[in-house]
Amino acid sequence: AALTTVAQFEAYRTSVRDAFLAAIGGLPAEKTPLNPQCTGTIDQTTYVIEKLVYESLPDFYVTAALYVPKGVTTPAPAIVFVHGHSDLGKSYPEYQAVCIDLANNGFVVLAVDPPGQGERKQYYDPASGQLHLPQCTEEHTHSGLQFVVGGASLARHFIWDVIRGVDYLATRPEVDATRIGLTGNSGGGTQASFLMMAEPRFAAAVPCTFIMTLASYMQSGQPQDSEQVVRGCFVDGPDHDDYLTLMAPKPVLVGAAAYDFFPLEGALEAVERAKAIYRLYQAENNVAITIADHGHAYSPQLREAAVNWFRQHLMGAEPNYRTKEIATLPPEALWCTPKGYVLDQWPAS
Questions:
Q1: Structure confidence at residue 349 as a pLDDT band (50, 70, 90)
Q2: How far apart are CA 26 and CA 179, in angstroms?
Q3: Helix axes 93-103, 300-310, angle to 10 degrees
Q4: 132-153: b (≥16 Cβ within 10 Å) or e
Q5: CB atoms within 10 A of CB 3
Q6: How far apart are CA 28 and CA 266, in angstroms?
Q7: Which residues pair with 290 in a beta bridge?
Q8: Considering the entire predicted model, what is its pTM?
Q9: What is the pLDDT of residues 297-327, one digit of tens each?
């Protein structure tokens, strides 16, 4: 409320971003070779899925699915999809459906497996085939605590993996690198929020089923995964309205669920706070909220809202798309590795 000029907010934006990056231990100083490789393709009539592997750091392999619409003749807008806490990662049917809807609307879509999810289980023993920590939330907490005692956060790898994914998208002739959007829900909403602060190349965002306020979540008495907890946030930020305003005046739509365990009251408050900052830029309509009548999910209702937000703000098209039931692939169809584990193919990675 004390920020009444653009200059004041710009100084505040810098301080919050700097505090956040310090809290997670900073980001790597060097962008090393991505060494991207396509390990297979799937022809889906209106689009093609490329099974992509790249190295966000040397010998640290990221698995992803790249959805490329057919018939792209000029560089098109792209969307990065970041995943919530499903062990299937990019193969989770609910998340596949979002990517398919976006691809069928002409967007190139990059869906990235986060650490500990999909094919990127870090506590997998290739010799025995055993998962020592079978659930992604267990893995995030176990590995995350090792970062915490060092004054950092596992979140730095979630963020860096996607930043390098954006670097890859920028090399693709099908992609207009000035029109890259970002979406995800739950833990993917967390990742989207962090990336909205850390990566300035995103032109629009739709963080779903995560945005609230710190105070509202404390009142709920619930825990979070290690990478979702930002050290020092109560003193230096970010609070959740900061996730939105650090994108200002770029377009951001909050996707909320009426019956979520992330408090809807907090989401409404965060958006109202953000509107005050967007108003300084005469861009109040560039931040909004849509509320779906269900529990915690990236539902068809939120999917449709996200597609239309990106159609409007990245394509200049009418936000009149109506979704339908989506047929998805079996999880193993999207594997980039033979057995669905990076450590099985690259045991020393």
A1: low
A2: 26
A3: 30
A4: ebeebbebbbbbbeebeeeebb
A5: 16
A6: 33
A7: 255
A8: 0.97
A9: 999 999 999 999 999 999 999 999 999 999 9
